[in-house]
Amino acid sequence: MPGASSQPSGKELRITPIRNGTVIDHIPSGLALEVLKVLKVENLDRDSEVSVALHVRSQRMGWKDIVKVENMELSPQKSNAIALIAPTATISIIRDYKVREKHPVSLPDRLVGVLKCPNPNCITNHGEPVESEFEVVRRRPLAVRCAYCERSMEEFLPHLAR
Amino acid sequence: MSLKGRDVISIRDLSRSEILEVLNAARHLIPVAEGKKRLETLDGRLLALAFFEPSTRTRLSFETAMQRMGGKVITIADPTVSSVAKGETLSDTVRMLSCYADALVLRHPYEGASRLAAQLSDKPVVNAGDGAGQHPTQTLLDLATMLERFGTLSGLRVVLMGDLRYGRTVHSLAHALGVFGAELVLASPPSLRLPEEVHRDLDQMGAKVREEEHLDRAVKDADVLYVTRIQKERFGDLAEYARVSASYRFDPALLQKVKSTFIVMHPLPRVAEIPPEVDRTPHAAYFRQAFLAVPVRMALLSLILEGRTGARG
After folding, report:
1. What is the value of ipTM here, to two decimals?
2. Which end of chain A has fewer beta carbons closer than 10 Å to its terminal beta carbon, N or C?
């Protein structure tokens, strides 16, 4: 497998191996910074390293981005958000310098608390104690529908719950 | 599956056979709705009506339906004088009402409000319109009107005219007509066409749909013309509104070209879409449609609260 996740090639990519953490590989080129926003890396402790590789050659994708974050494992909500904006991404969990788990992101049938409904008139945007909820109505191309107002959407980046 | 204890938030919540169950029950309740027979099926039952935006017709027809079946109602008709005015969330209001009443009917300006209410209430919730969202009992009474006149919904050719883009009640109706195998003819200004997602929904069902910009061609061979109001607030340019709304007025001269059984429907209130001359013709079905709101809501409330209507048939 090419890339920095399984065989870190520090010389080429200048990304050092991490002891514990998460590598998100095969992010469509140009979307790594959006993935960082989802991860909320600003909330990590000061001793954790965050590495980002932009526009890296990939056999499978042509070009890709990679994000590597020390001392963080993804919550299901963050994993779902990454699946929405970077459906080709793979996630590796690193423990003690070894890849313990590796899997492509996958999208469940229902997304809770991941997106903000784009409909300004939706009840979920009006101060009620309720989390947004969307159901996947079509996978290719991806379309989701708000479980409350039933509005469909096919564009996700501007509507991620930050 | 029985309707007893069920929430009715969107027409999608009801299967084809459940819709027919409600429509069939409504037909048998017409003499009760007319005051010619008495039924006390809902004696001892209390319905909470929470109307967070004005709606005389829908609220009164629910109140009438409940009282004709022997039940009673409590009502929030003016949220400006209730705890809502003090900043209470809808969630808290719903929890309170579901402690008091056996079922809850909600009208709210925000879309999805009834779905939220249904999650919070342990009593059944009926959506009486949420913003530009769903209004399933309107769809039921629209179907009841067509079924009463034609005896079937399958194969009917229904022209949907006016604002097909923003009027979500027309989307629910289009979905239901698709479920029953009616043929849809869409007659709307280019800027107010049916949204792509509704088209896709109809395509998935295999519904027959075609667009027809000219109303005279659309109504020829049609069984039903369903007219919706073109709302001024949808237009930034008032001159454009005046032009579009003038071109989507039903011209009584068109009645010369239609089938003898053809009917005109409208969810009311109408403004100028249908001139009053049409009222006196046998084609006008909108006042019958408004009346059928009562037996349809009687049937739905009885089936939700008791699992039966108590009417024979």
Report:
1. 0.86
2. C
